[in-house]
Amino acid sequence: MYPARIHDEFPAPSYRGNQKEGLSDVRAAFESGKDVVLVRAPTGSGKSLLARAIAGCARTAGEASAEQVVDAYYTTPQVSQLDDVAEDALLEDLCVIRGKNNYDCILPGETDTPVNQAPCVREREFDCQVKHRCPYFSDRAIASNRRIAAMTLAYFMQTAGSDVFGKRDVVVVDEAHGLGEWAEMYATIDLSPSTIPMWSDLDVPDLDGLDEAVSFAERLEHVTERRVKELRGNAELTPDEVAERDSLNKLRSDLSWFQEDYRDPESATTWVVDQADGEGSPVTIKPMNPERYLKHTVWDRGNKFALLSATILNKDAFCANVGLDPSDVALVEVGHTFPVENRPLYDVTQGKMTYDHRDDTLPKVARQIVRIMARHPDEKGLIHCHSYAIQEQLDDLLTDFGVGPRVRSHDKEDRDGALAAWKRSDNPDVFLSVKMEEALDLEGELCRWQVLCKAPYPNTRDSRVARRLEDGQWGWYYRTALRTVIQACGRVVRAPDDYGATYLADTSLLDLFERARHDMPDWFDEQVVRMSEPDLPDFAPDRALSGVSASAKRRHDRSRSRSGGGSHPLSDVWD
């Protein structure tokens, strides 16, 4: 790596904010001998441009000896972040490669078939005459030979050990704050009827402990191996059989790795097993602190690493979570340049939103939201609902209060479509979102205000969370929630001249700020110190709807009346 050229590699014609100073600090950290640099850069600081400059410091083929690795990877957990990179003209030399399911086969009669179900994977010994023009293999070949290959973290991890995407000189991970949690998610093994077609033929025991889980995994590995051999014996597979084969192959690999890791006395991984309903019921095998998994899939893939995020809150805790030695790691802070008065926090708390108190608190929160809507009659708003249960209750309450024509929501299957429709709308609609605290750019008039309905603490019913709390890891618990809050607060203020208000509805958020105060970045602590109670209008649904067009109100009224009866032949496609 050649950190000295980091400024020459910056892709924009000029710097903004603290980009120049931040890159100088990154250069100094690498030149001091650090292998990993954590770059804490707040929303709007242009992390992708910083990432490109760092990746450009990788050795090239002309600068390396035969045994030295060259070039760089750029990777991010967020698909939307990769989409933004692909569309940014300043980052055009980042060569993007995606998974096979994102490309369509070009063979006659197969143009609607994704490459992961094309004849080359369905038919044994199929000789594709147009493989050189296949969009997936073409992009893969190009990316493997380009100076900077860009991909999602999932694809990056899946290609560990491949001949095509081997070790490189520099690896840059954007939005890296959840790296440990992402690794745990990717390494989790789900055993259920949806993942194992022959589930009904299995005698699934009541797994009372890890030893029983390992024995069951060994037996299941043999069963799935036999099924894969049956599928391989067919001259041609259907698309469903292809999906089954690929799923079972991944499952076999995961089960094998679980058994090997569990039996390794030097492994740092702790495994937990969930089987809520005992004998015959689905099983989830989850790793905690999967250092070995990250070593194989990430840390062995490069010489030098830059990990960028707005919310790497505690260096030592982050390093412990992902298996890094803090002495090999530097933390670089990129200062915030957005005026604090443009990103105010408002206390509109109405009580606790825990499960036991939600039924009492949520109607009060809904009334506050109507008042907030009246304060912003002509501006779009975003409600962070935290869960689909809260979203559904809140949608019903707001409709009952008479502001339904201004409210939109989404389900699990139509997240992207509903979000895009809301962003395109000319009305000041309010979007009830679930798990959209990250990777959402709502600059300018796309959104001027938002509400956090609930403190986003990790689910204590998750066995990994419960295990950590049993071990006294309360600092991790509070940091995880604070990280999500900070990410959420950054959705509506995206540039120094942008502005947007964030309203806090759950009393537990105030408690969280006190408990995690020492882990707050200075720029967010400044927001918390300035937090105030807003002067809201009285509860007036008509005023909250004053900016909504008459046609939108009529469409909503027709939609509600139709959904109530459910008898219209076009009720499922109306509007």
Automatic annotation (TrEMBL):
InterPro entries in the record: ATP-dep_Helicase_C, DinG/Rad3-like, P-loop_NTPase, RAD3-like_helicase_DEAD
Gene Ontology biological-process entries: nucleobase-containing compound metabolic process
Pfam family membership, one: Helicase_C_2
Location of region: Disordered: 535-575
SUPFAM superfamilies registered for this protein in UniProt: P-loop containing nucleoside triphosphate hydrolases (SSF52540)
Domain of life: Archaea
Residue stretches of biased makeup (Basic residues): 552-561
Residue ranges of domain ATP-dependent helicase C-terminal in the record: 388-511
GO molecular function per UniProt: ATP binding; DNA binding; DNA helicase activity; hydrolase activity, acting on acid anhydrides, in phosphorus-containing anhydrides
Keywords: ATP-binding, DNA-binding, Helicase, Hydrolase, Nucleotide-binding
Name listed for the protein in its UniProt record: ATP-dependent DNA helicase
